[in-house]
Amino acid sequence: MTSLPERLQGTTIAVLGGTGPQGRGLARRFAAAGLPVVLGSRTEEKGKAAAAELAEALAGTEGVGAVTGTDNAGAAAAGDVVLVVVPWDGHKELLESLREQLAGKVVVDCVNPLGFDKQGPYALKVEEGSATEQAQAVLPDSTVVGAFHNVSAVLLEDPEVTTIDTDVLVLGDEREATDLVQDLAGVIPGVRGVYGGRRRNAHQVEALTANLIAANRRYKAHAGVRITDV
Fold it and tell me: Residue 124: which domain range?
């Protein structure tokens, strides 16, 4: 385990939706890197149970961060940086209910508005333009950054996978916040955070997940994205 970037030292990471595959996977990697992590769920009981399971799985790992769990409101209040890793259905309503707890914080929206039919995955139209832009509209007192849209939950959760070969496109309007989230992506071995533009471009990155899911189904893989020459 490498030392944490200066920006992240003393930073608690909360994961709303921390009991789902993507949330659990990200929480595992952040805790393994030495960051304290709070898993949020619809109920406090589910959050605590998921945290206890993850803490047990990471027991014996050198330098592991503390893992705790609670409901989404408690996690939002406890985190310095708060990741939103919930289903698209209910995304807006959840954030509206947590506006007070998330005020003044960096909120990382990881949600992909996708639909599925017999032809496969496809991107949904969002009134605000993207999930990231919707989050910023709902949370005017927070700084919203889009990131972690295209990282395989299967790879994140697999303890046998020691390094993940992918870049994370980070989207936002505030340089200090996007730099912070790029550093956060970089604590996962093999992963690099790359600035991908302002929030208004987030819809392209969210929609790309549909292409990756289609590729993964065809090739039985866990494809990621690499940005060359930077």
Answer: 6-219
Give a yes or no: residue 171 inside a domain: yes
Its pTM stands at 0.97
- In a domain, residue 133? The reply is yes
Q: Is 163 exposed, middle or buried (0-12, 13-18, 19+ CB in 10 A)?
A: exposed
What is the tally of structural domains in the chain? 1
Is 230 a member of any domain?
A: no
Answer whether residue 34 shows pLDDT above 60. yes
What CATH number did the domain enclosing 55 receive?
3.40.50.720
Whether the pLDDT of residue 104 is over 70: the answer is yes
| Mean pLDDT of the residues in the chain | 97
Return the pLDDT at 3: 83
pLDDT of residue 1: 52
CA angle 17, 72, 180 (to 5 degrees): 70
Q: Does 102 map to a domain?
A: yes
* Torsions phi, psi for 228 (to 5 deg): -90, 160
